[in-house]
Amino acid sequence: MNGIITEIQHASVHDGPGLRSVVFLKGCQMRCFWCHNPETISASPQLFFDESKCMGCGRCLGFCEAHKLSNGRHRIERAFCTSCFRCVETCFTGALSVCGRVVSVDEVMRDLAEDIPFYGESGGGVTVSGGEPGCQSDFTAEILHRCHKMKIHAALETNLAYSRAILEKLVAGCDLVMADLKHIDSQKHRAGTGHGNEQVLENLRSLTVPLILRTPIVPGFNDDAGTIRRIAEFAVKLDTLQYYELLTYHPLGCGKAERLGMEERAKPQASPTINTTDYLIKAASETGVPLFLNGRRIVK
Ligand code: SF4
Ligand code: SF4
C-alpha cells in the first residue's frame, strides 16, 4: 500500500513522549490560515524553490515558461508550472526540489525500524502526522497497526474532522491521539479553518485511547480568555484526556509557503505576546484541567 509523505523526521522531541520518528503525510481537508506546515496541505507533489541556493546559472530556463531570469534574479511563474519536475534534475545547487514523494508502507517501516533502539530508552515511538493523516486513512492505519504489532508506541496527530468509521480504523492501532481543537465556536472554527467543529467535538467525546488535546493560539482568532476557558472546560470532561496544551503560533511556516509559491500564506501573523499567553494560562488553569504550554507542564 502506498501513500504520499513530505518526510520522515527522526529524533523529534515535539510530537509526543520521548524521542520519536515522525511520518509527515501530505494532504489536509482543513485550510487553517496560520498553518505551520503549508507543504502538507496539498496532497500532490509540489515544486519547491529555495532562492537562497540559486546561482542564477540559467540551466533550468529552457524547460518551460515558468522559469524567468531578470536582473540576475530567478523567479518562478507558478501559473505555467505543470509539475513535471524535469527542471529539478538539472539544478545542481538544490535550489529546485520536489516536495512530496510516494512511498509504500514497507519502505516507511524499514526506515522506522532503524530508530527502534532509541524508542525504548526514551519512552518514545512513532507519530503519524501531517497534513491530516485521516486523509490517507488506510495508509495511516496500516503504519499504526504495524507499529502496534511490533510493540512500538504509536501516536496520531490529527484534526479529527472525519467520520466515526475513519476514526475507529485509525485508533485501532493507536496508543495516543494528539488532537487539535482550534475553536469552540463552530462558526469561528469554520472561518479560521474552512470546517465547522461538530465532527471534531463528537470524535473527541467518543475517543477510547489516551488523548492530548491542543489549541494553537492564534492572535485575533482564538486568543481570548473566554474561548480558551470554554475549550478547557470541554477538555476537562473528556474521559481519556491526559492534558490540555496551548501551542503559541510561530511564523516558521511562512518561509516554506514562499518557497512553494503560496504567496497568500507567506505573510506572518502576529505572535501571541507574553501577557496574552499569561492570561490564557490563567483562564485554562481555573477549570482544573492539567495544562501544558509549548511542551512544558504548567504548575499551579
Ligand atoms: S516542474 Fe516542469 S513545468 Fe514546473 S517549472 Fe519545472 S520544468 Fe516547468
Ligand atoms: S538551475 Fe537551479 S541554480 Fe540554476 S538558475 Fe535554475 S534554479 Fe537557479
From TrEMBL:
<dbReference type="GO" id="GO:0046872">
    <property type="term" value="F:metal ion binding"/>
</dbReference>
<dbReference type="InterPro" id="IPR017900">
    <property type="entry name" value="4Fe4S_Fe_S_CS"/>
</dbReference>
<dbReference type="InterPro" id="IPR001989">
    <property type="entry name" value="Radical_activat_CS"/>
</dbReference>
<dbReference type="GO" id="GO:0016491">
    <property type="term" value="F:oxidoreductase activity"/>
</dbReference>
<dbReference type="InterPro" id="IPR040074">
    <property type="entry name" value="BssD/PflA/YjjW"/>
</dbReference>
<keyword id="KW-0411">Iron-sulfur</keyword>
<dbReference type="InterPro" id="IPR007197">
    <property type="entry name" value="rSAM"/>
</dbReference>
<protein>
    <submittedName>
        <fullName>Glycyl-radical enzyme activating protein</fullName>
    </submittedName>
</protein>
<keyword id="KW-0560">Oxidoreductase</keyword>
<dbReference type="GO" id="GO:0051539">
    <property type="term" value="F:4 iron, 4 sulfur cluster binding"/>
</dbReference>
<dbReference type="Pfam" id="PF04055">
    <property type="entry name" value="Radical_SAM"/>
</dbReference>
<dbReference type="InterPro" id="IPR058240">
    <property type="entry name" value="rSAM_sf"/>
</dbReference>
<dbReference type="InterPro" id="IPR012839">
    <property type="entry name" value="Organic_radical_activase"/>
</dbReference>
<dbReference type="InterPro" id="IPR013785">
    <property type="entry name" value="Aldolase_TIM"/>
</dbReference>
<keyword id="KW-0479">Metal-binding</keyword>
<dbReference type="InterPro" id="IPR034457">
    <property type="entry name" value="Organic_radical-activating"/>
</dbReference>
<feature type="domain" description="4Fe-4S ferredoxin-type">
    <location>
        <begin position="45"/>
        <end position="74"/>
    </location>
</feature>
<feature type="domain" description="Radical SAM core">
    <location>
        <begin position="14"/>
        <end position="290"/>
    </location>
</feature>
<keyword id="KW-0408">Iron</keyword>
<keyword id="KW-0004">4Fe-4S</keyword>
<comment type="similarity">
    <text>Belongs to the organic radical-activating enzymes family.</text>
</comment>
<keyword id="KW-0949">S-adenosyl-L-methionine</keyword>
<dbReference type="InterPro" id="IPR017896">
    <property type="entry name" value="4Fe4S_Fe-S-bd"/>
</dbReference>
